[in-house]
Amino acid sequence: MSITIRFATEDDIPAICDLVNAFAALNLMLPRHEHQVRAALSDFLVAAERPDGEEASRLVGCGSLIGLTPTLAEIRSLAVARDAHGQGVGGQIVVALLDLARERGLDQVCALTLRPNFFQRQGFHVIDRWGLTPKIWNECVFCPKFNRCDEIAVALNLYDPETVPAGAPWWRVFAQHAPQPVLRFLAPRRA
């Protein structure tokens, strides 16, 4: 059996959704709809397994690299088929996503995860979730789990991996990244 990491294609969309949504049904990750995957298709990588002697391949993993700022991207929708766990597929996808981040000229990559140890083995450091201001105020604030989020934030500096990424204080970049309804809510009220 050989694993190939490649960019996702239109034909992979249903398999990506099936894989991600199987874990979402267990409350281990957020669900993805086909239109969401299609909109981010150029940011998705998949791991395809080709059993020895077989011509057809089967999707056994996926992950995406979604830009949050010009220098920061998030690894999202990282999933590996249950029967492929423990074979290094997730690590291969993360390495490929980090290479893609470097090609795109990014400085940092982050993730929100229930499996911080996996990411720590890949060189990531646990950070304060509130340091991911662009993610929190553009996306997380709309998540149904926002007030009871159980995910742990991890990040990696691509060009100095030993340095623990210091998330920007929320008050410094809040105005740049908060959605307009939040800004209106926080604005002083006129008498």
Largest sheet: 7 strands, mixed
Instruction: Give the domain tally.
Output: 1
Shape: globular
Helical fraction equals 25-40%
The chain-level structural class is: alpha+beta
- C-alpha termini separation: 70 Å
* Element order: H for helix, E for strand: EHHEEEHEHEHEHH
Describe this structure in words.
The chain is of the alpha+beta class and 191 residues long. It has a single domain (2-186), classed as Gcn5-related N-acetyltransferase (GNAT) (Aminopeptidase). It has seven helices and seven strands; from the N terminus they run βααβββαβαβαβαα. It is globular. Mean pLDDT is 80; it is low at 167-191.
List the helices and strands and how they pair.
Blueprint: E1 2-7, H1 13-24, H2 34-39, E2 44-50, E3 58-67, E4 72-80, H3 89-103, E5 108-113, H4 116-121, E6 125-127, H5 133-138, E7 152-157, H6 170-177, H7 180-186
Parallel strand pairs: 4-5
Antiparallel strand pairs: 1-2, 2-3, 3-4, 5-7, 6-7
Characteristic terms for this protein:
Aminopeptidase, alpha+beta, disordered C terminus, seven-stranded mixed β-sheet, 191 residues
Summarize the structure.
It is built from seven helices and seven strands.
